[in-house]
Design goal:
The complex is a heterodimer of chains A (298) and B (377). Chain A has 298 residues and is an all-alpha fold. Chain A has helices at 3-10, 12-42, 60-67, 69-100, 107-115, 122-133, 139-147, 158-186, 190-199, 203-231, 235-240, 252-261, 266-291, and strands at residues 45-47, 53-56. Chain A folds into 2 domains: 3-42, no CATH class; 69-294, MetI-like fold. Chain B has 2 domains: 4-224, P-loop containing nucleotide triphosphate hydrolases (Rossmann fold); 229-361, OB fold (Dihydrolipoamide Acetyltransferase, E2P) (Beta Barrel), CATH 2.40.50.140. Classes of the chains: A mainly alpha (298), B alpha+beta (377).
Chain lengths: 298, 377
């Protein structure tokens, strides 16, 4: 009996599986794996204007980035942005979801309203926020004026720009988080609450000992997704501030875009992309390691 | 131990038709009271109204001597076991059992001691550190039971607690729940759709149908003297055989389905109405014809189906348009389509009013008593 023949026979299951997976393997290869490996490859090169690899520089791109004050600033802005948007966004969404989960008349209306921001594209809502932030005709400054507070240059003041962008981002993301959390809340067995009511547990006791633990898989999911999304924010920066003023909102993805498509430095842009990838990877792994212990899967 | 009293209690949703109406019953302290009925009859709703999980839209609910209509569930001094057990999946068995104690801010040591006590009573000691998902159905059931017991409330409500268990375990848990109830002397209100559970567990049972009380009483009384045709067919397996009947004034005979003629004894004659009636007879009261039998009515039947269950034989046959069943003890070799002489008595008939359905004539008591006899030398 020849061995290749038996190997061919033994692998019949594996080959069948591979055949079934082929469509997604092809799609992933073309749109995910190839660009990813190409990015890693390019990050070791200096490129010409067309983005072709020209000179192999090894780790010099990375060395340059880690020493560059511009990149450090961009990292700092990104981390601040994540810290501003993720916790507040999720707490807000959880609060709305808890409210909307109550059995009240007309609650369907509020459920639709709270989740409606999901239906608005980043570009469209950014334009609306752009108008609201406008120092002379914007709604926010009008409001401040009527209350008698000093005017704020929302998007033009380096102190305020990142906060302003964060505010609009929270507003944009709250719809999605709300919807996921509401779904999680509605999955909790009603009998658990009834049983605890017979025992005499109050609202906050139930929240702490039933709702939050039972919601933990959903919370864990939404925290992971929100973190990744926050690290990858691009659209609202491009429309609201273009990274300015004085680089204060130059988040890392925007900085990658500028480096590649404005400055045509595909090498350093790729290196930034790789660093971002590693950071998100580390954050996600850390989250899984630390967070999962507190998650109760059914 | 507390009594529970329902006075004219009713329930409606959105002020529409009553789903439950006119419930009047007093559940005595320490009693095992079973609510039984087909699905959708309102028995669970009634239990939830007693628990305070559903609003009472009419009438008065009294727990102990106190009117409880507007008391919150925790003020009613009761515990409840749910059909799906409602265990907290993220807590261990121990934490599940002590959940209610923790709510009441009992000291941790005390909680632990009580949990251990109840766990040993129900054989859960080895599982205290496990999560519910690591337990079998029967063990989960016990945890739910333990949670109800540990609270030491005088009243315990159970909503079909055994319906998710297999038949063997169910029979075991039936006696176990009964034993615990007796030992602790709790007032138990138990909802089930299973008439076997109702018959075997209840001190008294209440049969509900379409939100109305059909009958309340001791299981055996309900079996012997069902108040109406619904109860007659709901309790007992196979159900009581029913058929339309009229009285033939000239021959003084009860004519069942124009086919079976049963002579009516003189003293019973005056009790029967002149209009239509429904007669019922338990399958075990249709007897094999033996030479020594005198009186009664002989009947030649053709079997349409036969089931031999080891210690008893059930066969069915037609009486007019109705299909009746007979249950004989022992194993009988009967073929389908066979002609068979059977025998029944007027005494074992239940007769219901044809229009209103109430019981006109009871069966005559045929139960056996064990008489204690001493052997004297």
């Amino acid at each position: 009996m020849n061995t290749t023949g038996s190997l061919w026979k033994r692998s019949v299951n594996g080959r069948t599986a591979l055949l079934y997976l082929l469509p997604s393997i092809i799609l992933f290869s073309v749109f995910v794996f190839y660009p990813m490996f190409r990015t890693i490859y390019l990050s070791f090169f200096l490129t010409d204007q067309a983005g072709n690899a020209a000179i192999n520089v090894g780790f010099e791109n990375y060395q340059y980035l880690l020493g560059s004050s511009e990149f450090q600033n961009s990292m700092k802005a990104t981390i601040l942005f994540v810290l501003y948007t993720v916790p507040i966004g999720i707490i807000l969404a959880l609060f709305f979801a808890l409210l909307a989960n109550e059995k009240l008349k007309g609650i369907g209306f509020f459920r639709t309203m709270y989740s409606s921001t999901m239906g608005v594209s980043v570009a469209a809502s950014s334009v609306i926020w752009l108008f609201m932030f406008n120092p002379s005709i914007g709604m926010f400054n009008r409001l401040l004026q009527t209350v008698g507070l000093p005017q704020i240059q929302w998007l033009l003041d380096p102190e305020w720009a990142l906060l302003s962008v964060s505010m609009s981002t929270i507003w944009m993301n709250v719809g999605f988080s709300f919807l996921i959390l509401l779904g999680g809340l509605q999955n909790i067995d009603e009998h658990l609450y009834e049983s605890s009511r017979i025992d005499g547990a109050g609202y906050f006791y139930r929240l702490r000992r039933i709702t939050l633990p039972m919601l933990s898989p959903t919370l864990f999911f939404i925290i992971t997704i929100s973190l990744i999304n926050a690290f990858q924010t691009f659209g609202q920066i491009d429309i609201l501030t273009k990274g300015g003023p004085s680089q204060s909102t130059n988040l890392i993805v925007y900085s990658i875009y500028r480096e590649a498509f404005v400055n045509y430095q595909f090498g350093t842009a790729s290196a930034q992309a790789v660093i971002l990838f590693v950071i998100i990877l580390i954050v996600t792994i850390l989250q899984f390691k630390l967070g999962e212990r507190k998650v109760h899967y059914q | 131990m507390k009594k529970v009293e329902l006075i004219n209690v009713s329930k409606s949703y959105d002020k529409q038709v009553d789903v439950i109406s006119n419930i009047n019953v007093t559940i005595e302290p320490g009693e095992f009271f079973v609510l039984v009925g087909p699905s959708g009859c309102g028995k669970s709703t009634m239990l939830r109204m007693i628990a305070g999980l559903e609003e009472i839209t009419g009438g008065t609910l009294k727990i102990g001597e106190q009117i409880a209509n507007n008391l919150s569930p925790d003020k009613r001094d009761l515990s409840m076991v749910f059909q799906n057990y409602a265990l907290y999946p993220h807590l261990t068995v121990q934490q599940n059992i002590t959940f209610g104690l923790d709510v009441k801010r009992m000291k941790k040591d005390e909680q632990k001691r009580k949990a251990a006590e109840v766990a040993s009573m129900l054989g859960l000691t080895d599982y205290l550190a496990r999560k519910p998902r690591e337990l079998s159905g029967g063990q989960r059931q016990r945890v739910a039971l333990a949670r109800a017991i540990v609270s030491e409330t005088p009243i315990c409500l159970m909503d079909e607690p055994l319906s998710n268990l297999d038949a063997k375990l169910r029979a075991h848990m039936r006696s176990e729940i009964r034993r615990i109830q007796r030992t602790l002397g709790i007032t138990m209100i138990y909802v089930t759709h299973d008439q076997v559970e109702a018959m075997t567990m209840g001190d008294r049972i209440m049969i509900l149908h379409e939100g109305k009380i059909q009958q309340i009483g001791k299981p055996i009384d309900i079996y012997n003297h069902p108040a109406n045709p619904f109860v007659a067919t709901f309790i007992g397996s196979p159900p009581m055989n029913l058929a339309k009947a009229v009285l033939d004034e000239t021959t003084e005979e009860l004519v069942v389905e124009n086919e079976l003629r049963i002579p009516v004894p003189g003293m019973e004659r005056s009790k029967l109405p002149s209009h239509g009636m429904t007669v019922g007879i338990r399958p075990e009261s249709i007897l094999p014809l033996t030479p020594e039998q005198t009186g009664g009515v002989k009947l030649e039947v053709t079997t349409t189906n036969v089931e031999v269950l080891g210690n008893e034989t059930i066969f069915s046959f037609h009486v007019g348009t109705e299909e009746w069943m007979a249950k004989w003890s022992g194993q009988w070799h009967i073929g389908i389509g066979e002609q068979l002489p059977v025998w029944l008595e007027f005494d074992s008939l239940s007769i219901f009013d044809g229009e209103e359905g109430h019981l006109i004539k009871k069966t005559v008591d045929q139960s056996h008593h064990v008489v204690q006899q001493e052997v004297v030398e």
